[in-house]
Amino acid sequence: MTDDIDVHVGRQLRRFRAERGMSQGELGRHVGLSHQQIQKYENGTNRIGAGRLYRFARVLDIQVADFFERVEETGPAEMERFDRRLATSRRTRRIALSLQQLPDPMRRQIYGLVEAASGVSLDDDPDEESRPKAQSLDDAA
138 to each of 79, 112, 134, how far by Cα in Å? Predict the structure, then answer.
């Protein structure tokens, strides 16, 4: 039977794996497990043993202690917020990767749409190269 700490460690495993863009299957292959077993660990269904936790840490290039980061803050409400952040993060990465595949004129139009809908200028990002202001979708038609 698992407890809140086991669930927290499983969620940390999911977070570190996702941050590295690694699938459950890929992580499983590195440590000799199926993707289903990785899923059970990440969901907190199964408890992760010390040896296996050490192998996960090596594959993910982290310290074992990282799995316990902020464990004292973990409760049901925090876990729910963590799940929402992870889903948003994963979705955001997929969107960003998809945008890179689009031709520049179409990408600029999408930037303009996002700016108009959110009220946030994408040109204010100091990490981005300056780019021309996207024309609206109505202007492009």
Answer: 42, 11, 11
What pLDDT is stored for residue 87 in this prediction? 57
Burial pattern 69-86, b for ≥16 Cβ within 10 A else e, equals eeeeebeeeeeeebeeee
Measured CA to CA, the distance from residue 55 to residue 13 in angstroms comes to 12
Rounded to whole angstroms, the Cα distance separating 33 from 24 reads: 9
Q: Are residues 18 and 72 in the same domain?
A: yes
Q: What's residue 98's pLDDT?
A: 83
At residue 33 the predicted structure's pLDDT band, cuts being 50, 70 and 90, is very high
Co-location of 126 and 96 in the same domain: no
Rg for the chain, CA atoms, rounded:
20
Question: Within this chain, do residues 92 and 124 fall inside the same structural domain, yes or no?
Answer: no
**Cα–Cα distances in angstroms (integers) from residue 17 to residues 21, 33, 66, 90, 107, in the given order:** 7, 14, 13, 11, 29
Burial of 91 (0-12, 13-18, 19+ CB in 10 A): exposed
